[in-house]
Design goal:
- Helix 4 links the parallel strand 2 and strand 3.
- The relative contact order is 0.22.
- The longest helix has 16 residues.
- The chain contains 10 helices and 11 strands.
- It has one domain.
- It is globular, with a radius of gyration of 19 Å.
- Helix 2 packs across helix 3 and helix 2 crosses helix 4.
- A 9-stranded mixed beta sheet has the order 5-4-3-2-6-9-10-1-11, sandwiched between helices. The chain has a two-stranded antiparallel sheet with strand order 7-8.
- By secondary structure, the protein is of the alpha/beta class.
């Protein structure tokens, strides 16, 4: 049967119902923050560039592209990247070699370079041996070191692909720290790493690295919140693993959320802070304390250890989900009734979340049970705070006017 490409399929989805999530534990989420403005540090901007690419690419891209001049989001689709058809152990049905190719092509297109090593040199121009490069994965549905319940969680294959690329520019394996400070990294994930020197850090399992801790005396170890009317926002602290790191790679999963409606790049940082559940009333649109003019997600990103350290966003949509704590969805109408089989690459977190949210909206609809307009409030606020480019667009047809959205088929 012919495989649909990104250019062949379009949105034909029905909204998916979502129940309201009521409570979670401290090991439940992911995100730290304190004001970058307060820190005196300058956030990392886009990779140096030359010429703006067209915003919409209706056919697969196979030729080199010039560097971006603004917020580029590269969407790489690999029709052979997965061979999963609903099995509980979804992590065993991903082809590493295809994911490697997807990562290589995505990073070169993102940076406008001709080799993987040069792509990483563009992203890590000041790297020196001994500097920690933290990769924040999402294991919000992992409840034990032997977790295998089939609910959506991070995959090791895109992590392996990034490590493989960084090694080509000379990054030491021991400088790469894969972590979720609030959730357990199970044996099936850690055991799938192809590089023995990589460190894995979590709060309980310590399978190959260490335990996440929260004891730093760094002046920016706590998040500074700027709520318009509530000066007594919850006091949350940044995990030491991120404080100790020099660089951060954010690897969210493309999926919706029952409270915030989307959980992507910004909300993945809930796994970097203590007591993240105390922020739920401020991100849930049905909460009486929710405000469209304030989001703690913005304050978290402005922390000196979050925004200023972030050099790359890699959105994992190889096997994405249509609910927060569900199994991956085997059939997406917008992806030809297959899994998305996609990775998204960006240096702009706002643009990255806009594109992934637009893909979720195209699939799930725009009702309150899908991805309503209010789900984009935090992105509008993040753009107003200077954290990136906001644009709600159509990733399947009209594309974008400001986001440099590039599609690649491998």
């Amino acid at each position: 049967m012919p495989v649909a490409t990104l250019a062949d399929v379009g949105p034909q989805s029905q909204p998916v119902a979502d129940d309201e999530l009521t409570s979670q534990t401290s090991a439940d989420h992911e995100l730290p923050a304190e004001a970058l403005a307060d820190s005196g540090l300058t956030p990392k901007a886009y990779v140096p560039n030359v010429a703006m690419m067209p915003t919409y690419t209706p056919t697969p891209t196979s030729t080199p592209v010039p560097p971006p001049t603004g917020p580029r989001v590269v969407h790489v689709h690999g029709s052979t990247s997965t061979f999963w058809s609903g099995q509980t152990d979804f992590w065993n049905y991903v082809r590493q070699d295809t994911v490697n190719t997807m990562a290589d092509r995505g990073l070169m297109a993102l940076t406008g370079t001709a080799s993987v090593a040069n792509a990483w040199r563009a992203l890590l121009p000041n790297y020196r041996a001994g500097q920690g490069i933290a990769i924040k994965v999402n294991f919000n549905n992992s409840t034990s070191c032997s977790d295998s319940d089939g609910q959506i969680d991070g995959l090791i294959q895109p992590v392996n692909a990034l490590v493989r690329g960084m090694k080509q520019m000379g990054v030491a394996e021991t400088d790469i720290w894969v972590y979720d400070a609030s959730r357990r990294l199970p044996a099936r994930f850690v055991g799938g790493c192809l590089y023995s020197g990589v460190q894995f850090i979590d709060p309980a399992c310590n399978l190959n690295g260490g335990y996440a801790s929260w004891a730093s005396t760094d002046p920016h170890a706590f998040v500074t919140y700027h709520h318009p009317t509530n000066p007594s926002m919850p006091r949350t602290r940044i995990s030491d693993v991120l404080i100790d790191a020099t660089y951060l790679i954010n690897m969210p999963i493309m999926k919706p959320h029952r409270i915030a409606r989307v959980t992507l790049t910004f909300k993945n940082h809930f796994g970097n802070i203590s007591e993240p559940w105390e922020l739920h009333p401020y991100i849930g649109m049905s909460s009486p304390t929710y405000r469209s003019d304030y989001s703690p997600l913005v304050d978290i990103y402005r922390n000196a250890h979050v925004g200023a350290k972030t050099i790359l966003v890699v959105g994992d949509a190889l096997l994405a989900a249509k609910d927060f704590d569900a199994a991956p969805a085997a059939s997406w109408a917008t992806f030809g009734n297959k899994p998305p089989q996609s990775l998204f690459f960006a240096t702009d977190p706002v643009a990255a979340d806009c594109v992934m949210a637009d893909h979720l909206r195209a699939e799930l609809g725009s009702s309150d049970e899908g991805i309503p307009s209010a789900a984009y409030d935090y992105l509008r606020l993040a753009a107003a705070a200077g954290l990136g480019e906001y644009e709600q667009g159509d990733p399947w047809h009209a594309g974008y006017s400001h986001i440099d959205y590039l599609k690649i088929e491998v």
